[in-house]
Amino acid sequence: xxxxxxxxxxxxxxxxxxxxxxxxxxxxxxxxxxxxxxxxxxxxxxxxxxxxxxxxxxxxxxxxxxxxxxxxxxxxxxxxxxxxxxxxxxxxxxxxxxxxxxxxxxxxxxxxxxxxxxxxxxxxxxxxxxxxxxxxxxxxxxxxxxxxxxxxxxxxxxxxxxxxxxxxxxxxxxxxxxxxxxxxxxxxxxxxxxxxxxxxxxxxxxxxxxxxxxxxxxxxxxxxxxxxxxxxxxxxxxxxxxxxxxxxxxxxxxxxxxxxxxxxxxxxxxxxxxxxxxxxxxxxxxxxxxxxxxxxxxxxxxxxxxxxxxxxxxxxxxxxxxxxxxxxxxxxxxxxxxxxxxxxxxxxxxxxxxxxxxxxxxxxxxxxxxxxxxxxxxxxxxxxxxxxxxxxxxxxxxxxxxxxxxxxxxxxxxxxxxxxxxxxxxxxxxxxxxxxxxxxxxxxxxxxxxxxxxxxxxxxxxxxxxxxxxxxxxxxxxxxxxxxxxxxxxxxxxxxxxxxxxxxxxxxxxxxxxxxxxxxxxxxxxxxxxxxxxxxxxxxxxxxxxxxxxxxxxxxxxx
Length: 559
Known about the structure:
- Residues 466-559 form the FDX-ACB domain.
- It is found in: Mitochondrion matrix.
- By secondary structure, the protein is of the alpha+beta class.
- It folds into three domains: 13-139, Rossmann fold (3-Layer(aba) Sandwich); 174-212 and 275-455, Bira Bifunctional Protein, Domain 2 (BirA Bifunctional Protein, domain 2); 471-558, Ferrodoxin-fold anticodon-binding domain (Alpha-Beta Plaits).
- The protein has 13 helices and 20 strands.
- It has helices spanning 40-54, 90-95, 184-197, 238-244, 258-263, 279-287, 331-351, 365-368, 374-382, 426-434, 447-450, 487-498, 536-554; strands at residues 24-30, 58-68, 99-106, 133-139, 150-155, 158-163, 202-204, 212-214, 227-228, 272-274, 296-304, 316-327, 359-364, 387-393, 396-407, 417-425, 471-478, 502-512, 519-527, 557-558.
- It has a seven-stranded mixed beta sheet, with helices on both faces. Strands 1-2-4-3 form a four-stranded mixed beta sheet. It has a four-stranded antiparallel beta sheet with strand order 18-19-17-20, with helices on one face.
- Helix 3 packs across helix 7 and helix 3 (184-197) crosses helix 10 (426-434).
């Protein structure tokens, strides 16, 4: 009952089918080849034309199945694997048309009734299909269009609006922690809250925490802060701020509120920034004694920190901060009780995830030293840390820091009580528990991510984009005379220009010119997406934009 069409040009599929026939659920192309002794370049061009043609006739959630002989595809699934330049580079070719490799499995000719392989070098001869692979491609989500986004926030007693930094446009107000969310970050937060409530009375106070702070965060490197400019005409006056800041934590120094600065005659600086931590809110609670001894205060929400590009370095993540006030002399036993509770909750979380067996440990702050990840290093800028919470999984059993524990600073302590706080990076926990290798996947707009976590169930994540292609570009430049190079700003610019498509930035060379003393740096920038198609042409365009923006915003001279 099938309709058979002959003489079909695989690069012009649209021409062979009526409009109502152009919604195929499956398109199969077994062992494509240009014919005779064609080289890899011609066969790549054939595949490129085929994939572009498929965009016009494939259903939105359809699949393209392409079978290739062993080694032709150029993916790690090929055994043995050919050198990249000698393969058909099928994943990169498909990415140029907007497709991602979602599955790959052996091609078994014997399972297809009546199948016969023929056509070796355009002759009626069979060819070797041993080790052949079937590659299954699906549509990628559309490229992100970063139009300017304005966000409203409360600043003291005023509602203000500001333009969201472009690198955060797709991450602001995503609602991962809201009640109707099934995101694994929320699931982990709810599981921890439920576990903690078994041992302590618990109060959740996360709903009213402002996104914006004012002033200068004490002890924090300014390069790590997302500075904000309020929309024109909305910068609050000193008088209005002094009237409305009595109950806020929009502070020039963590642990010191702005209202006190006004009372002491200190002018309020007109600088605003996205909160890098929930700790100032906890310190405001401590200072006002707005807690019950023995009860846990739970704060949670996204925090924002500029950082270097790395798979576990996040410019935004969800922090869960718990604050516990205990009688002096009992703080050690309470810390241990808190850690035991977190360990018990962690054990219950990973029991339902086969293949993942994380272990949580409490380590003294002095024992980690240079092993600190970006999260722990930044937390160290916020104040003294007593303990680190580390989670170890295969292949890194030594552990990655996902939380810190500290007691209140001296100026906030009382004679009767000691206040203990624990900060958890919920996004890092989600990655370690669910086997997610790249933090960017947590923020994907592809619905296939959340489908793997129905009704808040935690599972081992299976990537829907296999072997994504990477593109390496080098850039070298002269530094401005007499100025220190801000590497965090360099990485942040790469994030913005590439829409988070840069996966690695490595310093390759540092050169100082004899005589003049001018310094030159050379970096290797690797572009790769974890969730959508990225073609070589798009990556090259990103590199060109990056070079232009570097000159404009960093003041460097390209070489």
